[in-house]
Design brief:
The protein is of the alpha+beta class. Helix content is 58%, strand content 20%. Strand 2 (82-97) and strand 3 (100-109) form a beta hairpin. Helix 2 runs antiparallel to helix 9 and helix 11 (308-346) runs antiparallel to helix 12 (353-379). The model is unreliable at 181-190 (pLDDT under 50).
Length: 390
């Protein structure tokens, strides 16, 4: 085995210019596939994390007409499979700092809102039960907004002017947080700033005591369909009984979005994988030329007793080595480029080792398959005809 590998390397080295170009074609193909794999894997993870941070992994309870009574919130919280239920009210408004006014999404939340919407607290504190009960004029703002308009991120104790429905009030900043939508806001400028206030304060602003939505997080291992039916039964006992409740499984929508993303990634991978097939055809062409150039060598080997299987093995080994070397270099170069790029834009590095091994193995298989036809041609060559050739 070692002797055969050494002999294959010797044959490839004799035609090092042609060998280098063939390996380069394999490197380019594998590099493209590896870049798609790394960037796709990182993008998929980042996308899933953002959806989870935004609370897209539970249930959303709304009503088609009218508002949700507070008693419905208490009833949902009593369901055993419910981990948390949070009142959520959202409206558009404006936030003013230093005479600079900017559009905002004003979110009314309850104490412990980080259980339903990911709020990574950087400074200060979150909204408490006392804030909710007292209808306090306090708020949480996002880190990016604080840095842009105050020139620093720790702005605890500063005030901002919030305007909604024609009513303006000053609110004291009690916390600075990184919200789940911060990445999306960085990518798309039209997503407005989010400011969080106690939901009771939001109700005072809008002169409404009911809720517009309830965000529900469930216990792990819960049957989503069964829980949805339970929530609907509990809600049917609320109000007059004529209300049309809507309980949307956000986790199911998240799964559909994940499936769609995976399909897109597979399509991109297949498109980039076409270059590997082209590389296999290149290996086949080079090996056919090699067989034609080594006709006398094949005849001599057969004359001294080399069998068809030995000739077949030598040529297939050479084509496999071309693919293996090119695939290894392509993975190193493509993986390094994509990992650096992903780290620069996301601050994290993900290396899909299983995907890398699969790409390398697929490349070797393509190389071996590309060498089968030339190897069979060499193995079937009659010794006398080969010796008589020029």
């Amino acid at each position: 085995m070692i002797e055969s590998v050494a002999h294959a390397f010797t044959n490839l080295w004799r035609r090092k210019g042609r060998t280098a170009l063939t390996i380069l074609s394999v490197v380019v193909g594998v590099m493209l596939v590896s870049i798609v794999s790394v960037i796709g894997d990182a993008g998929e993870r980042l996308f899933y994390d953002e959806l989870t941070k935004m609370g897209v992994d539970g249930f959303s309870v709304t009503i088609e007409s009218g508002s949700i009574p507070m008693s419905a919130l208490d009833s949902i919280r009593e369901i055993e499979s419910v981990r948390s239920a949070m009142p959520l009210t959202v409206g558009t408004g404006a936030v003013t700092v230093h005479s600079l006014t900017e559009e905002t999404m004003l979110c009314g939340i309850d104490a412990g809102a980080d259980q339903a919407v990911s709020l990574e607290l950087l400074y200060g504190r979150l909204i408490s039960d006392g804030d909710v009960r007292a209808h306090d004029r306090v708020c949480l703002i996002e880190e990016t907004y604080a840095k842009t308009h105050f020139g620093r991120t720790n702005v605890i104790g500063r005030t901002v002017l919030l305007t909604m429905g024609g009513k303006s009030d000053e609110y004291t900043v009690i916390g600075v947080a990184t919200a789940g939508s911060s990445l999306l806001q960085g990518m798309m400028d039209y997503i407005p700033t989010m400011v969080f206030v106690p939901y009771t304060t939001w109700q005072d602003i809008c002169y409404r005591q009911e809720l517009s939505q309830i965000a529900v997080r469930v216990q792990e291992g819960t049957d989503d369909d069964a829980l949805r039916d339970t929530i609907l039964k509990v809600l049917s006992r609320q109000g007059s009984g004529n209300e049309k409740w809507r309980v949307e499984n956000l986790a199911a929508q998240k799964d559909r979005m994940e499936t769609l993303l995976q399909v897109v990634l597979w399509i991109l991978t297949i498109i980039s994988g076409v270059s590997l097939v082209v590389s296999g055809l290149g290996i086949m062409t080079i090996m056919l030329v090699s067989v034609q150039e080594r006709v006398r060598e094949i005849g001599i080997k057969k004359a001294v007793g080399a069998g068809n299987s030995r000739i077949l093995w030598e040529f297939m080994l050479e084509s496999g080595l071309l693919a293996a070397i090119g695939g290894g270099i392509g993975l190193l170069v493509g993986g390094a480029i994509s990992c650096v790029g992903v780290y620069v834009f996301t601050g994290m590095i993900t290396i899909p080792w299983s995907a890398f091994f699969g790409v390398w193995l697929f490349t070797v298989v393509i190389g071996v398959l590309g060498g089968i036809a030339p190897a069979i041609r060499a193995a079937k060559m009659p010794p006398v005809e080969a010796l008589c050739s020029e």
